[in-house]
Amino acid sequence: MSSLRFASGAIAAMLFILPTPAPAQEIGVKAGVNFASLTPEEDEEPDISRRVGAVGGVWVRTPPTARFSFQVEGLFSEKGVTFESGGFGAEVALRYIEVPLLARAGFGASNSAVRSFVVGGVAPAFKVSARGKSTFDGQEQSTDIGDEISALDFGLVAGAGLEFGRVLVEARYTHGLPHINTDDNGDEDRIKNRVFGVMAGFRFR
């Protein structure tokens, strides 16, 4: 819970850490879908597939009229992985509060109907919950695995998108750097988050 309180405080402070006055900021919301997996994936049995989860939150950008700007976000993000083998299925469901800190470059005239942009930066993430689910012969069991997953994750972010007036669409990839399992039995057992996300958003101002 301490990491969750810290993350909540970080998001609450987000609107105040930028040095420019409010009129020089853009504020908006965004939501979409994550396609998440965990490494290592090579030579793995059973069949591993991406877990589909929700992502969404708020963002602030400054200065809004510049080609190059800084963007801070507060996102709820679901990650994890699913896998199957014969009649057995399992899922690792991870939920985070993520605070991406992004450099942003925009392309196109300010009065264009469509503008493009790219973003890149870092994304500290604070664990909210972690559960393991298994299914066999139609029976499902869910277990809290919070003690087995680190409270903090940290990833590199790269993405691109399009703006249509106040509406935007974006695709991004987040590459987790540290292994998130608390036990460490060597490289082959160190799992890391890998997430591809697609989002749509709306700018309030």
Summarize the structure.
With about 200 residues, the protein is mainly beta. The chain has one helix at about 1-15, and strands at about 25-40, 45-50, 50-60, 70-85, 90-100, 100-105, 115-135, 140-145, 150-165, 165-175, 190-205.
The total tally of domains equals: 1
Q: What is the name of the CATH class?
A: Mainly Beta
Beta-strand percent range? over 45%
- State the separation between the terminal residues, measured CA to CA: 34 Å
**Which of globular, elongated, flat, extended, rod-shaped describes the shape?**
elongated
What profile does the largest beta sheet have?
Answer: 11 strands, antiparallel
Give me the Rg, rounded: 19 Å
H-E string? HEEEEEEEEEEE
The CATH architecture term is: Beta Barrel
**What is the strand tally?**
11
Our count of helices gives: 1
Helix percent reads under 10%
Give the overall pLDDT as a whole number.
86
CATH fold-level topology: Porin
Could you explain how this protein is built, in words?
With 205 residues, the protein is mainly beta. It has one domain: Porin (Beta Barrel). Helix content is 8%, strand content 62%. It contains one helix and eleven strands. It has one helix at 2-17, and strands spanning 26-39, 47-49, 51-62, 68-85, 88-98, 101-107, 115-136, 139-144, 152-164, 167-176, 192-203. Strands 1, 2, 3, 4, 5, 6, 7, 8, 9, 10 and 11 form an eleven-stranded antiparallel β-sheet that branches. A hairpin with a 7-residue loop joins β6 (101-107) and β7. The mean pLDDT is 86.
